[in-house]
Amino acid sequence: MLFPKKAKHRKWQTGRQSAKKLARPETRGLDVSFGSYGLKAMGQARVTSNQIEASRKVINRTIGKLGKLWIRIFPDRPFTAKAAEVGMGKGKGDPQGYVMDVRAGRILFEVDGVSEEVAREALRKAGMKMPMKTKIVAR
Questions:
Q1: What is the residue-averaged pLDDT of the chain?
Q2: Cβ atoms of 78 and 7 closer than 8 Å
Q3: pLDDT tens, 75-99?
Q4: For residue 25, is it within any domain?
Q5: Would you call 49 helix, strand, or coil by DSSP?
Q6: Which pLDDT tens digit goes with each residue over 102-126?
Q7: CB contact at 8 A, 40 and 137
């Protein structure tokens, strides 16, 4: 799973955002830059490192050794959770993992070196692992 080697802060603040800000499309990472086909996010979500790893595995299985995969997102935001049946107060919970805030328009994965049918099938399967709607785009 992906996680940062070193973090400046162990726990981040929640960072509540207005619906207007979340509805705005992404401004970076919009184009297929490395491969021929890409998986584009059509909505906003927090993607966990487990979801990225599950997508990476299914893409690698589908494209085989000939294909090349680029992961265009990296989870660097820690999220915390309190244990079950713990009362209010007593501080913030322990870090549980890492996520990335993805907004609409961001390219998540790119694939190259395989036929269009294989690339589309691999990206379709990876899109099923993501917590938002996705679209397959070509260069």
A1: 93
A2: yes
A3: 999 999 999 999 999 999 999 999 9
A4: no
A5: helix
A6: 999 999 999 999 999 999 999 999 9
A7: yes
Contact indicator for 136, 39 with CB cutoff of 8 Å: yes
C-beta separation of 55 from 72 below 8 A: no
Query: 47-78: b or e for each residue (b if 16 or more CB lie within 10 Å)?
Result: bbbebbebbbebbeebbeeebebeebbebeeb
The reply to whether 21 falls in a domain is no
Q: Which domain holds residue 108?
A: 34-77+96-138
Number of domains in the chain: 1
Strand segments, DSSP code E, in 1-139 are 37-41, 45-48, 68-71, 77-81, 94-102, 107-112, 134-138
The answer, as to whether pTM is greater than 0.85, is yes
1 or 11, which is more confident?
11
- Contact (Cβ atoms closer than 8 angstroms) between residue 98 and residue 7: no
For residue 89, give the 3-state DSSP assignment. coil
Would 12 be classed as within a structural domain? no
Structure tokens at 137: 């785009």
Phi, psi of 52 (to 5 degrees): -65, -40
In a domain? residue 17 = no
